[in-house]
Amino acid sequence: MIRKLVVLTFGLVLFPIIAKAADPEGCLNCHRYRGLARMEKDQKTVRLFYVDSNYYDRALGPHARLRCTDCHNRKEVNIIPHHKVGPVDCTRTCHLESPEKMEIQFSHARIANMLKSSVHDRGVLATANGLLGKPLRPDQSDCLLCHDEPTFRRTDQTWAKQEAPIGRCNVCHDQQLPVKTPYYYWHVHARSLPARSNTDIVRICAVCHSNPKIEEHFKIPNTVASYLASFHGKATMLGSKETATCLNCHVSEIQNVHMMQSYKEDNAPTNSSRLADTCRNPNCHATAGYRVSSAAVHMDLATNWGIEFLIACLFILMILSTFGPSLALTALELLQIIAHRHDPEHFQNVRLAEKLLVQPEGRKFLKRFTPHQRIQHWVLFISFTTLVITGFPIKFADESWSRWVIGLFGSLSVTRKVHHWAGVLLLAGFAYHLAYLTLYFWKKKQAEGKGLVRTILALPLVMNFQDWKHMVHLVGYLLFLTPTRPKGGRFSPEEKFEYFGVFWGVLILGATGILLWGHAWTSRFLPGRILTIALLIHSFEAFLALLHVGVLHMVGVIFSPSVFPLSPAMVTGNTPSEEMAETHAAMLEEAEKKIQTGKMEEKKHG
Fold this sequence. Notes:
Helix content: 55-70%
Number of strands: 4
């Protein structure tokens, strides 16, 4: 003990400048050092006694004007080393001395009275502390379950810019009216801002509301987990400052957070009779309809057995039944490449394709995509890629790469705007395709004179009975059951299936996207639950589309050896001879027949 006193005294003599602490009692002479700590008797717990002197030097918070003995018992801390320090009572009356030399009394006792009628009363806090493993010692206030040292919230500007408005105040309030202007300015300014960031608020609530023991004891669900799964929660994880947090919904505007009530109470903002107005406050969904409150914020699909659970199961089944077989076929195709296995007529078809592609007439018959079709494809490519880049960071907001992607756009708000207008481009391209399809259908019907249904079934990208026979034959070939590969025409059954998936996928994504974007309009005429369903469908369908396009389609048009590094089909309209021989052999034979027939006609007329 004597050694400690000698070291401390030597330090004070050696560093006289440091000894002049901001606090009049000189406590920071020791407590300003970061290494000041003590190992407890259990040899497991380390107690830190460090206090940041900047908090006092720069008046960073409301406690900066307090002496240490305003909270700690003077008799316990007036000697070194201190006696055993007793608990701090946050509700005790403080005697503050203002710059005007006037004594001001202040107490948090009113807060304690407010907590008595709150859902977080002192009994609940004490129980929670026990269930959490007693992070607060008996000599610590239960206020610390939610609070730490309060600081004034400042913007990201420099200190110099922040001090600029205070200089204007000092014109009068410096000498004429001796007031400590910086402290009062930041104290009032801080009260007009949220006490914590959105992320910090959720973290504080999660201490209890994501703890299994507390959930079991109080019979409550993991509300923080369900919140983070919602759009509001994902926006919070992505750094949004505008989205709603726990306090925005569970505490009325300008209401004291210490008076938070259960949703069962009539005056609670989350009560069913008041929830709609809570959602429609001016800072949130001001123009939304009354039904917006029925949109789920805390929905857990694992425990929800409603239509949302059914939709999730349906999409999982669709993923397994569509992507699964397609992935298996792609894997089997790769196996053929590894085994260097080809159809017996493959190399003959390659030579035929090369022969036809050097002829102007042959290139004409083998051109698989017209300029109109290529334009539609690139509109689809640009819009879909943009939607994926801007949409999936929101879906997977808990991943580190998501915030990085959002940062590239500047903010979540900008990312959402880009996502919305990419959706507009997608729907514009789809409208273009429908107009093109209608015109093509009308011309074909007029030329062939068939009925409506027969004309539709004869469209190039509509699957027919022959396509299903083709698929059965292909599976047999890929499983080494038959020696020959089926001969495909202009569009293979796999391409027709992809087209069908894109067609109805755009319809679903477009419809649900419009409902979500226009949520104010939607909630005026439809139940808010429609928004929950639309978001679920939109999310699952986007994931299904990415699996097919990002995995299967990319393999076919980029990574397949017959087209690598990129198929020129959507650039020039022509398909490489290797791919033509492998997948479109019937089109080669048809083109050869047309050329021979044309030559024979020329001879007859010649």
